[in-house]
User: Which sequence fits this backbone?
């Protein structure tokens, strides 16, 4: 296991040990690895009012002024493709940011502007 992967895996493990339940289905680290939170088959606790009808995926980091590393964005896109391929996501899934459905600045302005250029992004839920 690489040093970077160990650091991200350690971050997730520390959250669990501290009793912090991960509300997201998946977390994507800056190392390009995807970490399972609740997984595909449990109701999330990520966005009030949308937990039962959405998949919550968090990118670990702060993206107000700069984008995540390319490897992190590629891992997110690969996760979405995998979800479709495995039948966990509909082929016509839509991408929304948390700020579109709740009072938050997540996922940060730089990342939000990037997501808006993706073909599956929609303005309204």
Assistant:
């Amino acid at each position: 296991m690489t040093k970077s992967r160990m650091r991200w895996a350690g971050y997730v493990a520390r959250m669990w040990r501290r009793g912090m339940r991960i509300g997201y289905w998946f977390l994507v680290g800056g190392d390009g690895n995807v970490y399972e939170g609740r997984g595909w088959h449990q109701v999330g606790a990520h966005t009030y009012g949308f937990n039962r009808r959405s998949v919550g995926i968090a990118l670990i980091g702060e993206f107000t002024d700069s984008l995540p590393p390319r490897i992190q964005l590629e891992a997110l896109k690969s996760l979405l493709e995998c979800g479709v391929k495995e039948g966990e996501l509909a082929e016509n899934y839509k991408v929304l940011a948390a700020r579109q459905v709740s009072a938050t600045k997540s996922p940060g302005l730089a990342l939000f502007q990037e997501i808006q250029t993706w073909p599956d992004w929609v303005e309204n839920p």
The chain is about 30% helix and 5% strand.
